[in-house]
Amino acid sequence: MSLRAKLLEAANALMSALRASRKTRVISGTALGLSLVAFGAAGVAPIAPDAADLPVTLVVEELPLPDLNTQIASLSPAVGQFIAEERVRPGDNLSALLERLGVNDPQAAQFIRSDAEARSLLGLRPGRRLQATVDADGRLLSASALLPEHRDELKRLVIERGAAGFTARQLPVAPDMRVEMRAGEIRSSLFAATDAAQVPDAVAMQLVEIFSSDIDFASDLRKGDRFQVVYETVWQDGEMVRTGRVLAAEFRNGGKTFQAIWFGPRDASAKDGGYYDLHGKALKKAFLKSPLPFSRVTSGFAMRVHPISGQWKQHKGIDFAAPTGTPIRATGDGVIEFAGNAGGYGNMVVVRHGAMYSTAYAHMSRIAARRGARVAQGEVIGYVGSTGWSTGPHLHYEFRVNNEARNPDSISVQHAVALAGAELQRFRQVAADMGHRFSLMAGDAVQVAAR
Ligand SMILES: [Zn+2]
Question: Is 326 found in the same domain as 227?
């Protein structure tokens, strides 16, 4: 018998074995491997009317097919067992999911619903995969699924049928970390640009956070602004399960370039790390540029009304247009100096930041701070409203130096944190590596994925 004939026979044998099984669309892993080999060869054959005249035979000889009959025979214990995989669909329930997997096993369903470990299957979100090994009678032999991350820990749930019934275990899974690079240009909005560059929202929000002392993303963005970002992603089973930290970023905003490099002390927890500019100076400053949070939801409306020079003396503040109820954040660490009604200011909170500086937030619909309490930068202290002398919902924000309102754009209060000595040396290596990555992306909005 010629090799080609043997292959075709093997493929036919395999196909009938599969047809005999309860579900042809679910086939065991071993059988799948074999079928690809067999179909690959069968697919090649019709091109060659006379196989001997063509180099096709070379390809066939390289295929690892020592003895197909033995291989098929070795499959027989597994014949009648299938590995099936399904994704959780929106609105799915356990019964529907098991049915799609070809599982008809009330005992298994009961176990999954009642076992403390196995129950976590019920919480799988749409899109998550569940693999199952099922026998010819639809009995579940084993099941496995990657669980949603809990405190940055990845676990795989494994359910197995044993002599004494089902068992379920959660096994730790080592994350597969990758580094991705993206670049983009602002044409209409930040999220339009990050979407176009396929930057996940979680990374876009990190960008906003990283540059929040320098850029008010609600009002400072200009058409033509550009960004580059290098960030970690965590992968499992060939799928990205989450984004990690932004390792480096650059933002060119209205002619100014801001750069950020993540740097953490060696052998220390991630909490001790921070973002630095290329010279090793900490990026985080004493004050946020905007008291209003920026998000995909708020990006459409949050508008900053810049006081024009002639009006500054009368107005002494910056008005942020925003719907009633928008959270207001303390722009810097401090202590609540005042929280209450203040006439024309309406409901107002004043935060003191050391001897020299204070910030005031007026016209609140609701105050969420107590006099004397400590607040951290970014903490919510109230909500946008229209109390006092106000014609519509907005936040009136004052930045005060020695109790006098000043234009915050004219003042830069920086944390005096800079790297030095050996840390600075080590930082320079990290910065050089990131600088190299940036130069790879330089030019236009290319997308580069790298391990
Ligand atoms: Zn105002």
Answer: no
- Same structural domain for residues 183 and 276? yes
Tell me the CA–centroid distance for residue 361 and ligand 1, in Å.
10
Residues 258 and 331 in one domain: no
Question: What separation in Å is there between the alpha carbon of 404 and the centre of ligand 1?
Answer: 15
268 shares its domain with 243: yes
In this predicted model, what pLDDT tens digit does every residue of 424-447 receive, in sequence order? 888 998 888 888 887 777 654 344
- The reported pTM is 0.61
pLDDT digits (tens, 9 = 90+) for 406-417: 887 777 676 656
Query: How does the average pLDDT of the chain come out, rounded?
Result: 78
Tell how far the Cα of 372 is from the centroid of ligand 1, in angstroms: 25
63 band by pLDDT with thresholds 50, 70 and 90: very low
Range of the domain at 216: 176-285+443-450
**Residue 283 Cα, ligand 1 centroid: separation in angstroms?**
29
- Shared domain for 281 and 301, answered yes or no, is no
Per-residue pLDDT reduced to its tens digit, 25-46: 333 333 333 333 333 333 333 3
In a domain, 30, yes or no: no
Domain end: 120, 144, 173, which one?
173
Tokens of 390: 């106000």
Give domain status of residue 254, yes or no.
Answer: yes
Percent of the chain with pLDDT over 70: 73
User: Residue 182 maps to which CATH number?
Assistant: 3.10.450.350
Residues 337-357 have a mean pLDDT of 94
Residue 276 lies in a domain: yes
Ligand 1: centre distance to CA 295 (Å): 23
